[in-house]
Structure formats: structure tokens, C-alpha cells
Write a structure and sequence with these properties.
The protein is an alpha/beta fold. It is built from eleven helices and eight strands. The protein has a six-stranded parallel β-sheet, sandwiched between helices. Strand 1 and strand 2 form a beta hairpin.
Length: about 325
């Protein structure tokens, strides 16, 4: 289809179905502008992709502001149908697993739903946790107190929180224990009542850690578990708790599973291409990929060391 713009007029030339879909996108985006919402180039691309896949869906329904009712510092909206279904799944289920590549909004939207639930007084506290695992490198002993040692691992959760809640208010809520950011190891032995729990980077939990967290849920609580099974940083002898939980719990009533793909990535356009290229290079399911990762690591550890070079002749 050919799009020609002159001044404030846009002319669409092409097949009737394509022209009708493009006209709908332009009219709905123009409606957003009239309501005072900014529209960026990425929003136009996302809306066009959505209209091509589901022309019967109203963009306004997909782009509902998750935090509009709680006076957030910024608008947080679903960028595609997968994110819209994810938000609805969180509202309808007490436990949701969100699995998919980086950049699909798994943790960010879960955080937005948690902040909204807290402000609507649906829960009395929000608990953000993740395993303290390095991404393929050894950082050694970190200086400082225990809180300062684990803080680098939790920084992504703080970043998402401060993006939605003013810094001073967030710090007050953390001081009062209304919002708690803690490593997963600190969850053992607790019962989390009236809470919204987010477990991030769940692919790096062990089987024992995953079971431990899932059995912490108390009355009137929700939990969202997010992870990317293609980025597991566990030692080779450990099984990913996320991979195992998906296999064991899928089909259990009351538990929702949301799977994102590279088509749902909403970061830099290159991220989508990078993920697609890696998927082409390693076309296998998460369980098989996990088994291959462990096998390769074991082979590396058991490989004989190379002979030291001979000293130079005298």
C-alpha cells in the first residue's frame, strides 16, 4: 500500500482491505492525539502491526492505561495484544508465569499491576524478589553490608519501581515495609498474606527455590513469576526452577501461563532481530535447551587441560 502525505492530508492507495485497516489506525491514533496523548513513531508501528493481525480489535481497548486510576507519574499501557492479554491474566489469576525474551514487558507490566493494586488497596504490600545470580561471570566478594552486597542484583527492580512511583514516595514505602525489595533467599520461612509478589529472573531459580517461593503465598495474595528460559545462568548441575515449574504446573486450575515471542519485543528494533537470529541458531524447546546447556558445561569441566608449553631451548 502507498501512503502519501501533503500538509494535513494523507492519501492511502492500495487494496480496499489494506486501505480500510490503515484508515482505522490513523483515525484512532489521531483520536489519541486529540485526547492529549503523545504518539511516537514506535506507536504507529505497533498500531499498524496490531491492525494487520487483528483488524477487529479497537486500539483504545488495547492501549488502556494500567495506572490511570491511581495517579501514577506516567502512563503505562499495553503496546500489543500479548501485553493486553498478560494484564488481563494478572487480574484474573492469583498466580501467573510470564515466559519470553527480553524486552517484552514481563517485569515492567507486572510492576505496574502491583503498584495499581497497592494504590487501590487490593493488597497491603508489594514484594519484589529475584535470585542473586551473576550473568555468566564471577564478581567475587562485594564490599559493604548485606543490603549493599545484594543491592546490585536488585537494581533492575528498583529502576522499574522508580519509573512509576516518585523517588521520595518509593523510599518512604520501602522504609515502612509497604514495598519490599529482597533477594529470593530471604523469602524462606515466611507466609505472604495480602501481598503482590513478583519473582523476576525466575529462570535462575533452582527447583528448591521455586517450590519454596510458590508455597509462601498466603490469603488474598497474588504472584507473578517472570523469566527467559534462553538466558539461564545456573551451574550445570542445577535444573532451572522455571523450566521445571512450567512442566509440572501447566494445566493446574487457577494458574496462568503467558508466553511471549520475539514479535512482542517493544525495545529497540534491533532487539527483535537479535532474538530472532538466536532462535534460528538454536531452534529447540526450553527443556532441550536447558539439557544442552548443562551437557556443554559438563563437557567443558571434564575436558583435559592442555599441556603446558615447552620451555624455549637454551
Amino acid at each position: 500500500m502507498d501512503v502519501r502525505a501533503r500538509g494535513n492530508e494523507v492519501r492511502l492507495v492500495g487494496e480496499p482491505e489494506a486501505v480500510a485497516a490503515a484508515r482505522k489506525v490513523l483515525e484512532e491514533l489521531y483520536g489519541w492525539l486529540r485526547q492529549g496523548h503523545p504518539v511516537h513513531a514506535r506507536d504507529v508501528t505497533s498500531a499498524a502491526r496490531l491492525a494487520a493481525g487483528r483488524p477487529d480489535v479497537e486500539l483504545a481497548e488495547v492501549y488502556e492505561d494500567v495506572l490511570s486510576s491511581v495517579g501514577s507519574r506516567r502512563r503505562v499501557i499495553a503496546k500489543n495484544l500479548s501485553q493486553r492479554r498478560y494484564i488481563e491474566m494478572i487480574r484474573e489469576h492469583d498466580l501467573v508465569f510470564a515466559i519470553g525474551p527480553a524486552g517484552t514487558g514481563k517485569t515492567y507490566l507486572a510492576m505496574a499491576c502491583a503498584v495499581a493494586a497497592l494504590n487501590r488497596r487490593e493488597v497491603s504490600r508489594v514484594i519484589l524478589t529475584r535470585p542473586a545470580v551473576e550473568a555468566g561471570e564471577r564478581l567475587g566478594f562485594l564490599p559493604g553490608t548485606l543490603a549493599e552486597k545484594v543491592n546490585p542484583y536488585l537494581r533492575p527492580l528498583y529502576d522499574a519501581l522508580h519509573d512509576m512511583v516518585p523517588f521520595e514516595k518509593a523510599e518512604r514505602l520501602i522504609e515502612r515495609g509497604v514495598i519490599e525489595v529482597a533477594p529470593l533467599a530471604f523469602m524462606r520461612g515466611r507466609t505472604l498474606n495480602d501481598s503482590f509478589v513478583i519473582l523476576d529472573e525466575a529462570q535462575n531459580t533452582t527447583s528448591e527455590q521455586m517450590k519454596m517461593l510458590l508455597t509462601r503465598l498466603g490469603f488474598d495474595s497474588k504472584a507473578v513469576v517472570t523469566g527467559d528460559t534462553t538466558q539461564i545462568d545456573l551451574p550445570p548441575e542445577k535444573t532451572s526452577g522455571l523450566v521445571e515449574a512450567t512442566r509440572i504446573l501447566e494445566g493446574v486450575e487457577g494458574i496462568g501461563f503467558m508466553r511471549f515471542s520475539e514479535a512482542d519485543v517493544v525495545r529497540h528494533p534491533l532487539v527483535q532481530k537479535i532474538i530472532r537470529a538466536y532462535d534460528r541458531a538454536f531452534p529447540m524447546d526450553p527443556a532441550s535447551r536447558e539439557a544442552l546447556r548443562r551437557l556443554r558445561a559438563l563437557e567443558t569441566e571434564s575436558a583435559p587441560a592442555a599441556d603446558p608449553p615447552e620451555p624455549p631451548g637454551e
